[in-house]
Amino acid sequence: MRKMAFLIFYTIVLTVYGVVNYYIYTRGMQALPAGSVIKGWFPYVFWGFVATYVAGRTLENFYLSAGSDLLVWIGSFWLAAMLYFFLAVVIVDLLRLINYLVPYYPRFVVANFDQVKLWLFYGVTGVVLVTIIAGHINTRNPVVRNLEINLAKNGNGLTELNAVLMSDIHLGTLIGNGHFEKIVNKVSKLNPDIIFLAGDILDEDLEPVLRQNIGETLRELKAPLGVFAVMGNHEYIGGADPAYEYLKSHGLIMIRDSVVKVKDSFYIIGREDRDKKRFSGRERKPLKELVGMADPRYPLILLDHQPYYLEEAAKLGVDVQFSGHTHHGQLWPLNFITSAIYTISYGYGKIGNMHAYVSNGVGTWGPPVRVGNRPEIVNVKIRFGDG
To answer: pTM (2 decimals)?
Structure first.
């Protein structure tokens, strides 16, 4: 049953991928002059880019190598380019439709239509290329966000907690050891008392992580009170149990539908990912049951990868919830979609008496590109008994 569900899912994804690319391709061919050299080699270059991501992901399942890495990298950049080429073509087609209904093209455009189409081809390609390059540079330079949270509950002698929150690192082929070392160095400079990792630490496949020995860099994430993490949907996609064992064996305190009391001062509630049932066939524990394992007189900090049902957590008496998952769309204008889906797509909000922060992540999924938001490390100062 699960195999059939996966087959149906990937069939739908590949069909949409093919249709969108064909739409872009036909408009690109129409923009190029008949008989031109560019029009001759355009189909080979275009469909070569289209095939690279699928080919790379398929190849790495059989033979993980520099060749599969190269294909995945090229294909991942193409995913971002595809989005912006698609948006550009849709806008151009809408303008054409309006002109068909109510002619408004200037005389110059009508008289030189073929030349204008070619200029558009070059212009759109140039803008997309610059956007992708700028977006990639953006991904390689995460910023440190500062957040202050004041809780009325007493920390049993602990007055302040200097915490670091990260989510959606997506360690693997695209977020490799070199870039992760830079992230770890930034975290170390913040001298955190505790580190929270809100899921999607790994990017599906464990093999690229093993090959780069990224686990040794994970060990460099250190804090006196510990490094606490929960599973995300990508840990489940790649295999929850191997991911859990790997992360646990490299210094992370994995909280899986359980509760941990820290320094006799506060509780951390760690939920399994919402997609657990989809990938394992087993339900995660109800949040009410998890909250019931903690003493409500102490501050309750909830780690839940996907920021659904924030209102439920607030009603149950959770004081702080940290989540990730959304990437805040990662590529503008997809942030409008995530903002429509989630109560909080990105940043800080207060639901009743509960403080909530949804990080847009420090890594990327799919394209190694971010447009419209910065990858982040969140330095959270939590003060107890201030209220």
So the answer is: 0.93
Q: Mind listing the pLDDT tens digit for each residue in 92-115?
A: 999 999 999 999 889 888 888 889
Neighbours of 68 (CB within 10 A): 20
Residue 175 buriedness (CB in 10 A; 0-12 / 13-18 / 19+): buried
Q: Under DSSP, is residue 32 helix (H, G, I), strand (E, B) or coil?
A: coil
Here the contacts of 253-256 (C-beta below 8 Å, separation 24 or greater) are 253/226, 253/227, 253/228, 253/229, 254/229, 254/230, 255/228, 255/229, 255/230, 255/303, 256/230, 256/231
Domain membership of residue 26 as a residue range: 2-138
Question: How would DSSP label each residue in 292-357?
Answer: TTS-TTS-EEEE-SS---HHHHHHTT-SEEEE---GGGSBTTTHHHHHHHSS-SSEEEEETTEEEE
- H/E element holding 383? strand 376-383
Spatial distance between the Cα atoms of 67 and 95, rounded to a whole number of angstroms:
42
Q: Is the pLDDT of residue 3 over 80?
A: no
Sign of CA dihedral 95, 42, 333, 278: positive
131: helix, coil or strand? helix
Per the structure, the count of domains in the chain is: 2
Answer yes or no: do 102 and 186 share one domain: no
Residues 117, 153 share a domain: no
β-strand pairing of 347-351 with 376-383: unpaired
Instruction: Using alpha carbons, list the distances in angstroms from residue 83 to 3, 79, 313.
Output: 29, 7, 35
pLDDT of residue 386: 64
pLDDT at 12: 87
Asked if 212 and 177 touch (Cβ cutoff 8 Å), the reply is yes
Strands (E), 46-154: 143-150
Q: Are residues 108 and 160 in the same domain?
A: no
Query: Which run of H or E residues covers position 24?
Result: helix 2-31
Closest C-alpha among 380, 56, 9 to residue 223: 380
Domain boundary among 93, 117, 138: 138
